[in-house]
């Protein structure tokens, strides 16, 4: 389809400026008809005679609609008449429509009256595209007609899509059965709806100016479809790729610095500069460390320098923690000193309003000019537990026992990030890298995600996100994570209107439409969690060496109540608790007392916990069952020493299994400290509530399904 | 409306036995017409001539439908013809319908052809009633027509209802705007739909035999409604009130026993009987204690008796922990000894199948005969921390530091109940009473709830529920809780089909339809939580001395990220984060730095936490704001000593406020042990994650709205 030239002319006609321009329905219909879209036959009549002539040409009955750029909701002002049967009615209707239009708005520009073939009733869909300011074109399809907003039954996808994806968009609608053949009715023409989506796909790839296409209703028949109403909005497409994306990055100097200068270091730990320097020293940084402060001789035994230039050696990383207005001069001295990586902790930039915004632009320009990779301003810093390098001043670093591990974490909220870091440590969970991005004057979330993708110390990437500025950079980074088979686990805030207000008052980030984010995350296979604390839970889950290959969960508990709770949880969330094979049931029946349950969910009864060999046999049988993709064990109140015996049995089964095993334990930690210690030593994450272990299993399955490309299971999971 | 006689005749006709009996549409239509329901005019034609005659009488166009008890889905077999215009068509259609019916099922009994007035299109609703086997009649109303099952847009209520409740049923539908006047359209006749629900309400109150009434579609017009299709199912109503409901109860002897005999006590703590006796002693029971075991001289220093009768004193409570087959004889000896309260811990009853079921019936009969109040069998026991009386053997009792408090807890799962008890203690939360109901051979959940309602030690009642056997007893107990203004907080499992399987294989309880439970909980103002661990969270929340009077939440945090997360959480759950009044905003602006947020959610910034007076002023201003019903404070990583200063400020504000204040804190406990200790000492529950504190606030508001009768806010909360 070669459309660019024709549409370009139309856009010339429309005199497109910065504001979006709406086409009239007739213009839109005509354009789409020319491009081969199955629009209802129709012509623009400008006189009574033309109205009659077109009506005859089309064949009665016909529909007539007023065409005016000033009248968008035609039905509401008597601008639409259906079922016109003959010449005389056609003539009268033409006059009536004009009178109604003038009465509604005497200044309205009337392009004429659209005469259309009267369509038989079919299933009504709404089909269209919408350009998100951050991520670009999204296609959508849903239950159409006048109740679109009430029922909210629709699915959306980031473009481009292929035919399989278009097909699964249809399947995601609640009313999909009406399309595929409901209650013995003949199936409707799904293929034509898919083709319509593909046509929109092509159109958007060639015409970035498309802001909105709304086709509503699209009538779907057993054979064919008919687009009965067309609404098109055009708008200049904005180039939103920031210049800094092509900057050379000095990530090694930022994350693995051999030498650090702290500009604004202090010996007063009540000051941020004092806390920062204290944490670097306290947590055992191994490289060379230079405090810079013209007012001090030494800090914590380190000789202090009056300026960067006074330091006799080269510096990998500048940690800048001075007053906001001093930061430009400090950055200039970084350039003079040849420093290529800096973190600015200072606040007083875009987050405080327009003066701060100007200052932020200034430091971005300086960093660009000097080729400096910059994190911040208004950052809490970067921590690399894996290297004992803590260039951060978050309160979490008060701990005497930081833990390193395989999780890389990047946060747009310093406070939430720091709190999560401390909670992770509390649970014995370690991070490889921890990054507070601050205001993202230079480096932003996508840059850090890319770094974590390449970072060999990081196996799981997690992020707390308020808003993405550069959609395509984010998509690139997420795709890189997917290629590297590193799970990308995200919490995204700013969903509610009030939440967006909060985000905007705090950072410069644009909190985009949540539905768009949802599409993008689905497209790139990112795992979106619902609660911040799940960032830690899920990351723990991903320490499992294997992924589930499907959503069929074997459940083993020692209590009927736990069976029921886990079964409810699985079902609510789209996980399947299948029947076990006969062989497995036989093995279980041989092991457990008669008042247990041999069916999935299996209740081995509390009695069996003190018979570890039997318990192990049950676990082995369930995990090996061909009907099962993963094993979930829910423990209740077992106490040491029985609990430790149980823990050993679970670890032994886990070591031999080629399917993931997750463990929940509702009983308090104080009942089984030895068992919990054993689990920790053997890298078995234990989740304290049924809902949390089920949720983590869902996310593991979701990631597995992305990896193994099982679309149909994903739809079920994401819809729940 | 006096209908009993007429319907009784019809039921005689229908020869109602134990199985449900369906009326044909004509029978149903006629009955409802006689009772004044606005059914579409229609007559049963048994010949061609009658078909023509009725068609003329009604006036063309008409609709014809085949009437046969064997043909339920008439449309699917060519049993319905619409829009018949004249005598000749009416005659032909009559023949056609008969032929189609015979072709579909040659043995079908044909009652005739229903000739109905052809109705103009209106909004299609489904309206009806359904009798739940446990709770009785439920009314429902929803989006009607053929897509009922796909859209699942309906609301249900337990009968009886009044007109206000009927009205709010309508408002709960997503498509309600179509009824109330959508996009400038005239409103439809809501009042007639409400009247229809009220007619069904009356009908069911007079005719318990009604099993199902399905009116679908009911056309709703601007003036009037028309019931176009009627489906009625009748069934004998079962009397499901167990005899034991009229037994005299000896709750004081069960819960506050002055003397206890433990039949089956042992000095081996690996045995259940050993553990039970050990826990009674260990946790300091103050009354007289008698181990009964013919094979022992003494246990833990208590002289042992060979039988109950050998004990020289009267006994309040018998704790029976012997093999299942010995329990009848032990109960008989209880009768001989004049004991009126017993707990049977032994398993091997209804939960193991039909033999156990028989044994369970036997002990129920003995208990009834002896007038014994019985808890169990298969119970883990009863604990009264408030009295240091622990007649239970759950592993939670391993603790050396049990805590008492205002929460009464009753559980149908011993294992889950015991696990939750231990988790509560871990969080510093105490119980007044803890009850494992076991198989409920005699006393059941409603009996225990009633006890907790009357128990002065209990302020909040919580329950883990698998299934209720006696619906009206439950409703009575819950109503009593509401009257006493004690929150009833429930977790109900057995929602999923698999979950129901698990429940049924474990206990004898009937896991009823979840939707029915939902209706009942809403009706009695019980708070249903989604996750088991929320039972503890919410109960902690209810320790607040005051309830919110609305759903408008003031939010104060020290981080923009936290503001956004809380705002998202509130909005997802139906809580409102309103604009603060101008005066409040001015006070906040005077206190906080320029990069904070004076709007709700308020970001005071981390800086303010070290200025406790300023922080207090902000809290006081927000909690006093007339736009706000409750205050939610979300802390992040503040560490001692700052965290302690913050804690003191919060407690001071709480002490003077007449609105509830909840606190969340995402940062790890190890950062602020002193602050957390201070909160605990001052009864301020602190929740570790944003989602948990928001959830608890939602439940507080829900209970407040039930108490204050604010239906419109409740609808919003329950729909979310």
TrEMBL record, chains A, B:
A matching Pfam family: ATP-grasp_5
Keyword Iron-sulfur among UniProt keywords: no
Domain ATP-grasp: residue ranges: 29-65
SMART domains in the cross-refs: CoA_binding (SM00881)
Entry GO MF terms: ligase activity
Keyword match Nucleus: no
Annotated keywords: ATP-binding, Ligase, Nucleotide-binding
Record protein name field: Acetate--CoA ligase family protein
Organism: Fodinisporobacter ferrooxydans
Lineage start: Bacteria, Bacillati, Bacillota, Bacilli, Bacillales
């Amino acid at each position: 389809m070669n459309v660019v030239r024709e549409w370009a002319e139309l856009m010339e006609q429309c005199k497109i400026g910065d504001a979006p321009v709406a086409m009239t329905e007739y213009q839109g219909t005509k354009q789409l008809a020319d491009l081969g879209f199955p629009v209802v036959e129709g012509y623009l009549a400008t006189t009574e005679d033309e109205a009659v002539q077109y009506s005859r040409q089309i064949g009665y009955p016909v529909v007539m609609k007023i065409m005016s750029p000033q009248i968008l909701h035609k039905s509401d002002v008597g601008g639409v008449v259906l079922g016109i049967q003959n010449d005389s009615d056609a003539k009268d209707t033409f006059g009536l429509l004009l009178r109604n239009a003038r009465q509604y708005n005497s200044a309205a520009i009337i392009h004429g009256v659209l005469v259309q073939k009267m369509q038989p009733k079919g299933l009504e869909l709404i089909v269209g595209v919408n350009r998100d300011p951050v991520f670009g074109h999204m296609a959508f399809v849903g239950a159409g007609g006048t109740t679109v907003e009430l029922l909210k039954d629709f699915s959306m996808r980031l473009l481009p899509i292929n035919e399989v994806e278009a097909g699964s968009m249809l399947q995601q609608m609640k009313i999909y059965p009406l399309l595929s053949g409901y209650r013995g009715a003949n199936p409707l023409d799904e293929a034509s709806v898919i083709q319509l989506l593909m046509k929109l796909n092509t159109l958007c790839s060639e015409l970035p100016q498309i802001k909105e296409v709304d086709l509503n209703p699209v009538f779907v028949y057993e054979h064919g479809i008919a687009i009965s109403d067309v609404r098109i909005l055009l708008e200049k497409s904005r180039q939103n790729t920031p210049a800094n994306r092509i900057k050379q990055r000095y990530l090694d100097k930022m994350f693995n610095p051999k030498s650090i200068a702290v500009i604004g270091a202090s010996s007063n730990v009540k000051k941020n500069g004092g806390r920062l320097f204290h944490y670097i020293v306290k947590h055992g940084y191994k490289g060379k460390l230079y405090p810079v402060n013209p007012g001090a001789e030494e800090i914590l035994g380190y000789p202090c320098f009056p300026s960067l230039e006074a330091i006799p050696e080269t510096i990998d990383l500048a940690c800048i923690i001075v007053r906001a207005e001093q930061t430009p001069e400090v950055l200039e001295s970084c350039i003079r000193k040849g420093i290529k990586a800096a973190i600015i902790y200072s606040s007083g930039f875009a987050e405080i309003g327009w003066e701060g915004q100007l200052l932020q632009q200034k430091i971005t320009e300086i960093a660009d000019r000097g080729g400096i990779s910059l994190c911040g301003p208004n950052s809490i810093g970067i921590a690399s537990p894996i290297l004992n390098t803590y260039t951060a001043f978050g309160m979490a670093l008060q701990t005497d026992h930081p833990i390193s591990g395989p999780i890389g974490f990047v946060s747009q909220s310093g406070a939430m990030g720091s709190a999560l870091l401390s909670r992770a440590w509390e649970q014995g969970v370690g991070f490889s890298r921890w990054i507070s991005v601050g205001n993202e004057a230079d480096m932003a979330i996508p840059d850090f995600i890319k770094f974590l993708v390449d970072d060999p110390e990081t196996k799981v990437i997690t992020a707390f996100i308020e808003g993405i500025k550069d959609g395509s950079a984010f998509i690139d980074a997420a795709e890189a994570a997917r290629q590297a088979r590193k799970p990308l686990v995200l919490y995204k805030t700013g969903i509610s209107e009030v939440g967006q207000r909060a985000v905007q008052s705090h950072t410069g980030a644009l909190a985009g439409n949540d539905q768009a984010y949802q599409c993008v995350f689905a497209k790139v296979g990112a795992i979106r969690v619902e609660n911040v604390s799940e960032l830690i839970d899920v990351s723990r889950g991903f320490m499992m060496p294997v992924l589930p290959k499907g959503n069929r969960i074997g459940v083993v508990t020692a209590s009927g109540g736990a069976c029921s709770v886990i079964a409810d949880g699985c079902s609510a969330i789209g996980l399947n608790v299948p029947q076990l094979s006969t062989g497995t049931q036989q093995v279980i029946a041989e092991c457990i007392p008669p008042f247990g349950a041999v069916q999935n969910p299996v209740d081995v009864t509390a009695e069996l916990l003190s018979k570890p060999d039997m318990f192990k046999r049950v676990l082995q049988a369930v995990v090996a069952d061909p009907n099962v993709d993963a094993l979930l064990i829910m423990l209740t109140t077992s106490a040491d020493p029985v609990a430790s015996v149980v823990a050993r049995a679970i670890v032994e089964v886990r070591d031999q299994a080629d399917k993931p095993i997750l463990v929940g334990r509702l009983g308090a930690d104080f009942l089984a400290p030895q068992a919990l210690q054993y689990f920790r030593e053997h890298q078995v994450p234990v989740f304290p509530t049924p809902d949390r272990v089920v949720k983590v299993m869902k996310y593991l399955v979701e990631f597995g399904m992305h990896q193994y490309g099982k679309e149909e299971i994903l739809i079920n999971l994401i819809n729940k």
